[in-house]
Amino acid sequence: MVFQDSNLLPWRTLMQNIELPFQIKKQPVNRELIEELLEVAGLKGFENSYPGELSGGMKQRGSIVRALAQDPEVLLMDEPFGALDAFTREEMNLFLLKVWAKTKKTIVFVTHSISEAIFLSDRIWVMSPRPGRLARVIDVKFERPRNIDLQFEPDFISILKEIRTQVEGSKIEKDTSNDHR
Amino acid sequence: MTTDNLANKIPDFNSSAKIQSGGPVDVSALTTVRLAKGFKEISKVFLLAIIVFTLLEFILLWTKTPLYIFPRPTLVIKSLFHDFGSLYYQPLLQTVQEFFVGLGFGASIGLALAVLVTLKPGLDIFISPYIIIMVTTPMIALIPFLMLKFGFGMTPRVIAVALASGPMVMINSATGFRRTNAELIALGRSYGATEFQLFRKIRFPFALPMIIVGFMVGSIFGLLTAVGSEMVGGGGGLGNRLIYFSSLVRMANFGAVLVIVATFGVALYSFFTFLNRKYASWQV
After folding, report:
1. What is the rounded distance in angstroms from the CA atom of residue B47 to the CA atom of residue B41?
2. What is the pLDDT of residues A142-171, one digit of tens each?
3. A24–B205: do the CB atoms touch at under 8 Å?
4. Which of A83, A57, A61 is nearest to A4 (CA)?
């Protein structure tokens, strides 16, 4: 589980934060996996830093490492990059693709950014706003590994438009239903 | 579009982020007082103090102020060193004992109650009124009553100290526990943490700064109560010495006791400030 906020405990170092779930579950710490993940996350050398000393992107990567260190079957991510600036967000997207390529975990990723959704996923479930219902399922068939220029491909933009219309449409529907009330 | 309609669309942030600042007793200001740092600043502060006391000394000499009106600083210092073993050591020991036993009992009960109230929020409304009453009522007022029951010994004072310090510890700790970020709790839960683990790994460390502040304020209240009840109740201790020396107009001795009490108070403050810096530095 990865949250909107990195949710690292401020009184623990990065390493101690990653060890927290192991302590809670009373399991031995998987050093090898953590080392490997820290390498991918570019957090080598920051193991003993406190969250207050890390940037927003590093903190969020740290929290992803914490989640992955548990070797979960599914990784749940709730708008994990929403609080980051646009550039860091792109970096994080690439990082996540790298992580996926390495671990091949199923990742359930909630986002408000349509391009982020298309860029990252194999399948998108579009939800309608209030009540949150499944409005549509879209398969994304771009090849992997993907790079950031994918966002400018015509196919990418056409999917973007499609989803955008879908989301807008359900919003308008909702507004009119409100007026009738 | 009516405001009503708008309100429906704006997500409600208030429900998740409840208390962010200001508990019942927010005394964190005590730990953030700016004090002199480094040799240069500290020596300046000391220099000023020495100048003030030297001036005081000379003015008192110049005006030939009698001892019973105001003791000269040198006389107080002399008495402090000369009579420490014979006049002050025993009373100090007694006050220290009353204070620590009282604080020990009071703080453990206070902390336990804070944990209880956090785990069972429903109990809050039953316990809080008594805590507020105990915080706001000077516990020295209970001394005559406690003395009827427990005599002239240390017992009534220990109880008074406990009653004065405990609620302070409780109210601050409970606030600290309650303020714990809901997201961090959710994190712990997502890894299947038990209620006890949540407390040990997340709630307690999160509340630690507030708990330390609670101890600081509680111990200041406790010292106040210990010295106060000795003044009221007789039977030894620094407070009792204050009354004794002033009744005999031995103002140099009186001043010396006062210095000891003040030193004790400042030592407590420094100790808890040190704890706060050591274990709660992440807060800044």
Report:
1. 10
2. 877 787 778 788 888 888 888 888 777 766
3. no
4. A83
Contact between chains at A11 and B187 (C-beta distance less than 8 A)? no
- The whole-angstrom separation of Cα B229 and Cα B239 is 7
| Closest residue on chain A to B208 (Cα) | A11
* A-B C-beta contacts closer than 8 Å: 37
pLDDT of the residue at A174: 56
Give the phi and the psi of residue B114 in degrees, each rounded to 5. -60, -40
What are the DSSP E strand ranges found in B84-235? none
Q: Which residue in B has a C-alpha nearest to residue A24's C-alpha?
A: B193
In A, minimum Cα distance to B181 occurs at A7
This prediction has a pTM of: 0.77
Decide if the complex's ipTM is over 0.95: no
Question: How many C-beta atoms lie closer than 10 Å to residue A162's C-beta?
Answer: 15
Nearest Cα of chain B lies from the Cα of A68 at a distance, in angstroms, of 12
Closest in B186, B192, B202 to A25, CB measured: B192
Smallest CA-to-CA distance from B237 within B151, B147, B142, B157 is with B157
Check A23 against B190: CB less than 8 A apart: no
Angle at CA of residue B115, ends B110 and B118, nearest 5°: 125
Q: Is A137 exposed, middle or buried (0-12, 13-18, 19+ CB in 10 A)?
A: exposed
Ordered DSSP codes for B6-69: HHHHS---TTTS---S--SS--GGGGG-----HHHHHHHHHHHHHHHHHHHHHHHHHTT--TTT
- Nearest-CA distance B175 → chain A (Å): 19
CA atoms within 13 A on the CB side of B112: 6
In the beta sheet, which residues pair with residue A110?
A78
Opening angle at CA B274, ends B269 and B278, nearest 5: 150
Question: Backbone dihedral region of B72: left (phi > 0), alpha (psi from -120 to 50 degrees) or beta?
Answer: beta
Q: How far is CA B92 from CA A126, B75, B84, B156, B169, in A?
A: 73, 20, 10, 17, 24
Q: How far apart are CA B228 and CA B163, in angstroms?
A: 14
Distance CA B12, CA A77 (A): 22
Residue B109 burial (10 A CB sphere; 0-12, 13-18, 19+)? middle
Residues in chain B: 284
Q: At B29, is the pLDDT very low, low, confident or very high (cuts 50, 70, 90)? A: low
At B48-80, the pLDDT tens digits run 999 999 999 999 999 988 888 888 898 899 999
Would you call A7 and B183 a contact, using CB atoms and an 8 Å cutoff?
A: yes
Residue of B nearest to A26 (CA): B193
Q: Using the Cα atoms of residue A157, residue A163, residue A169 and residue A175 in order, give the sign of their dihedral.
A: negative
Q: Rounded mean pLDDT of A96-104?
A: 84
